[in-house]
Amino acid sequence: MVEVNAGRRRPSSVVSLTRVPELAGWHREGDEIVLGACLTYADMERGELAALVPALAQAARTIGSPQIRAVATLGGNIGTASPAGDTLPVLAALDAVVEVAGRAGGRRVPLLELITGVKKTSLAPGELVTAVRVPVLRGGQEFLKVGTRNAMVISVVMVAVVVDLDGQSVRAGLGSVAPVPVRAREAERYAGEHTDWSRGRLAGPAVARRFGELCAESTAAIDDHRSTADYRRRAVAVCAARALARALPPLEA
Amino acid sequence: MTETVTYELMVNGERRVVEGSWLGESLLFALRERLGLPGSKNACEQGECGSCSVRLDDRLVCACLVLAADAQGRSVTTVEGLTGADGDALTDVQRAFLDEGGVQCGFCTPGLVMSVHDLLDRNPTPDDLELREAISGNLCRCTGYGRILAAARTVVARRGEASLHESEGPA
Amino acid sequence: MTVTGERTATAGRLGHSAARPDGVPKVSGQFAFSSDLSADGMVWGHVLRSPHPHARIRSIDIGPALAIPGVHTVLTADDVLGDNSFGLEHADQPVLAHDVVRFTGEAVAALAADHPDTARRAAQAIVVDYEPLEPLIDAEEAITAPPIHPAGNIFRQLVIRQGDTSAEGEVVVEATYEVGMQDQAFMGPESGLAIPDDDGGVDLHMSTQWLHVDRDQVAACLGLPTEKVRLTLAGVGGAFGAREDVSMQVHICLLALHTRRPVKMVFTREESFLGHVHRHPARMHYRHHATRDGRLVKVEARIVLDGGAYASTSGPVLVNACCFAAGPYVVPNALIEGWAVRTNNPPCGAMRGFGAVQACFAHESQMDLLAAELGMDPVELRLRNVMKSGDRIPTGQVVSGAAPVEELIRTCAAVPLPPLDPSPAVMSMPGGSGRTADPARVRRGVGFAVGFKNLMYSAGFDDYSTARVRLEDGVATVTCAAAEVGQGFVTLAQQIVREVLAVDEVVVAPAETVTIGSAGSTSASRQTWMSGGAVERAALAVRARVDAGEAGPIEETYEHHHPPTFPLDENGQGVAHVSYVFAAHRAVVDVDLDLGLVRVVEIATSQDVGRVLNPLQVTGQIEGGIAQGVGLAVMEEIVLDRGLVRNASFTDYLIPTALDMPDVTIAALVEEPEPGAPFGAKGVGEPPTISSSAAVAAAVRDATGLALPRIPIRPQDIALA
Ligand SMILES: Cc1cc2nc3c(=O)[nH]c(=O)nc-3n(C[C@H](O)[C@H](O)[C@H](O)COP(=O)(O)OP(=O)(O)OC[C@H]3O[C@@H](n4cnc5c(N)ncnc54)[C@H](O)[C@@H]3O)c2cc1C
Ligand code: FES
Ligand code: FES
């Protein structure tokens, strides 16, 4: 709509997805949550869903304003495929799988394969996101977003850290630091190896710091009018370390 | 203009027909330019200022981000559709904005009035952060928000007193 | 002398928080802002703007635009009916660019069409062949660079020499400071409606700050006598300086005359950012000399303001920056040099604080630096040098009116500090809902700043306002062309007339240029004094006739001039100002040391007001002005990349939201009546913006220990330092 108001896009037809009831809402299927594409951020922010996928709720609360969150949808965040899409690092960290429907039928694609570049997806013309599947995990989840204002701000950096106590893994999704959401695999491996999984604690505070540095190394940040590449790398390191230390409190050094 | 469309909107409880409109028009444009309801304001048309806030069914939205044709069959409430209790033309929120000095240039005011109503309908006793978060999508450049927050707090207090009196019953 | 609460005042009169006459329409959505106007047969105007900061126009082909159904006319420089140039101080800006464009956003063509979308498409269809030229983007370079305009690159150069310019202090501190380009970012976008008349003239309904000067500029560009341009003020959604210059006024009038139809234009937010002047970015090199016991010996300053492509008010802004460069202190010796220059950046002009804001950031940063060097408390250092009534500013002019600076500093500094929250909610820490804060890495800082500036126009400008008061059947009507931009002049006008004539019903007639003379601009914190004074005197004249027993309708008009001022001489000396106003601010901030995110916790302030005429309006001006100061300190900046504006939207030009704006504690409104001022009252609009940015910057320095010589302070300035 922003593009239409500014005359940059001129629709000759529009599809209103919000009236399709199957796309709204969410439900649980075993160990998975199925999030409808028309789920709004307001729906994600609180209630039972927020307890099941806290990082998603934390991300949702940082998006736009209450008025935006009342109507803007998860499907829209994916469809927009902006490097600054706030739910995307969370979905990346959760290994979310996107359900796509098109004339030729449906398919399931991992989020990281669906998003191919700045505002680019592998969706074929006529294809729609109908739902997103994310796992229900036992373990801490943290989403941190850096912006230069306390509300209504486009991310300068985002970090999502998800701990899977049962699978004994740490996963990190980073945003606004590359054309597409980034998984910090090296950092994840390092954190996994330096966690006392029997107690659910990091081996020590230095682990969080090193994890942060490794996360920063996995970025391809750039300078733009919102910030600089150097700051973004620093902010990723700081936020990732803080996120991990909250999700897996370190044992004393 | 290219192809035009005609549709019907339910605005402030009245059926209104929009004729000859271009499909790309926002609800804000339709309200302001086609239905003679300029109370909802147009400070950005990008969803970034909240001056166009209206109630769409039970949700507060930015009218500039809603395709007018997509609002068919829904109920739209704008600032023009607000009325106070006991025959007062103004609501308690509008009164409080005046009493507390929440209005300067007034461009943000209709949107903020809608936001404060929306908040207090959902949460009658917000704390300071809840209040600030609820209006964080409404930019005001004149007031620094101080008098607007004061107005919202005044409404909370007045409603609290009123319900207290009610529950106490006639002496 | 300090008011704490509201004193007894008669409802609706002076001293009382009288209700705004436009309040009910504004809360109910009935108030007609300029963007709400319409007329039968109206078409939509639109302006095509340059995408280049500097380019030669080889050719313009409007054919493809004219071919679009619904397009009524497309105008270029050749269609301008009168002078193709306008400007407040110097008419150096083309109405429509003819051969060269000098900034991104410069108007190249104007058109009218049946729908805003058609108009936008038509603008996109115009083919302009540009030959891009190297943009001149550095203000320092512009001083010596080849001229980019026939009038040269230097708008104004100024030297102020006071006392012994070779004096040396025992202690010297020196630094270079920078202020980024701030935008007024009012909410109501520029908009207007021009209606052609049968007599060849035009009725213009416009949101502006200065009706008569708009009219004069428009008439010259239309080639019409001034009386054929009739301007009526349409509802103004904030101004803050950005509506002092002409934006679309000439364009819509030209379109109306060419199409013979009413033409409405409403800027998008992007056009608004590109289409009005901004606050001047400044580069300021300072050297303060002091004795070892903390007395200022000399201030040396070199101030360079980037005026952008056209003159606007760059000259007077520079005069202000230089006159107030040393702050409200006793400075026996001074050498202050200033330049305001032309570049290919967006034009800069008036914004709340008008040159004093930039200088204040520098002089207050210097005072802190000096305090640190001397091992002295920063507040104590300020008190030791504080200006009093009877002292001189560096131009040699004596501050003859009220100057309660010491009381401002003492009362503001005495406010108890807000308590540290032992377990703060995440929303109330730096980073807010982004949940980034680690309480162990958050530091609190406290900063203090004092600032001052002139009230009214200075340096020889014949500044006046005209008002008429008519009393008939117990109802008074005020006519005055003072632009109500939100500040509350309409309320004040009613209060004054009620007070003087002891009537209850006072009607404020629409501001226009047909039946009344100029009221001057709603800027320089001058309307309370100038137009308030004009209304008072017109009302007094009416009362005199009532007292003399006259019956029937009585009408009096008064033209109120302030005492004359004079241009500065070649040493920057002279009586250039009428009166000064002062404020002090103390900021408390929390800073995330690792991420560089700042949360402003509280601003305490004391302000010199002369007399409180409407307590609620004074509070509103103070809180709103502080919000703009906080914004400049930590987030607001027009980001330029080789002359291109990178953030012309509210998505990326960030102004404080309710979650960013701290609580404001008003420690004292110091009421020391100003001699010569109507009711003893001083304007209150600008002081809140002057020193609040400097106070926030000082607080962030206190928290971080960093020098931070530039505002806005960006997260990377802290995190990567
Ligand atoms: C003022 C403002 C502030 C914002 N702030 C943020 C922010 O802080 N963080 C953030 O991440 N985003 C932000 N956004 C972007 C926006 O909120 C998201 O992209 C949002 O999720 C869009 O949802 P929507 O339902 O409105 O989608 P639409 O705007 O309707 O669509 C957006 C795009 O996605 C496509 N699309 C929509 N649904 C689907 C689907 N089911 N399948 C495939 N494609 C689809 C559309 O075709 C379109 O290209 C902001 C937007 C605005 C206007
Ligand atoms: S006009 Fe709709 S949010 Fe600004
Ligand atoms: S009162 Fe002017 S923008 Fe809020």
Overall helicity of chain C: 10-25%
Report the CATH architecture of the largest domain in chain C.
2-Layer Sandwich
Strand arrangement, major sheet of chain C: 4-6-2-13-10-11-12
Tell me the number of strands of chain C: 27
Count up the helices of chain C: 17
Name the average pLDDT of chain C.
97
Q: How large a portion of the residues of chain A is in β-strands, by DSSP E?
A: 15-25%
Assembly context of the chains:
heterotrimer
CATH classification class of the largest domain in chain A: Alpha Beta
Instruction: Extract low-pLDDT stretches of chain A.
Output: none
Describe what this molecule looks like in 3D.
The complex is a heterotrimer of chains A (253), B (171) and C (721). Chain A has helices at residues 2-5, 41-45, 47-52, 54-61, 66-71, 74-80, 88-93, 111-114, 185-193, 205-217, 229-247, and strands at residues 26-29, 32-36, 97-102, 105-110, 115-117, 120-121, 128-135, 141-146, 157-164, 169-175, 182-183, 195-196, 201-202. Chain A is of the alpha+beta class. The longest helix of chain A has 19 residues, at 229-247. Chain B has helices spanning 27-34, 92-99, 109-122, 128-134, 146-168, and strands spanning 4-11, 14-22, 53-56, 59-62, 75-77. The mean pLDDT of chain B is 94. With 721 residues, chain C is of the alpha+beta class. Chain C has three domains: 6-30 and 464-561, Aldehyde Oxidoreductase, domain 4; 43-133 and 187-238 and 242-275, Aldehyde Oxidoreductase, domain 3, CATH 3.90.1170.50; 282-457 and 569-719, Aldehyde Oxidoreductase, domain 4. A seven-stranded mixed sheet of chain C has the order 4-6-2-13-10-11-12, with helices on both faces. Chain C has a six-stranded mixed sheet with strand order 8-16-15-14-9-27. Chain C has a five-stranded mixed sheet with strand order 1-26-23-22-17, sandwiched between helices. In chain C, helix 5 packs across helix 6 (249-259). The two termini of chain C are 45 Å apart. The chains are: A alpha+beta (253), B alpha+beta (171), C alpha+beta (721). The interface between B and C is large, with 57 and 67 residues. Bound molecules: flavin-adenine dinucleotide and FE2/S2 (inorganic) cluster (2 copies). Flavin-adenine dinucleotide sits between chains A (2, 17, 37, 63-64, 68, 72-73, 75-77, 79-80, 84-86, 123, 128-129, 154) and B (46-48, 65).
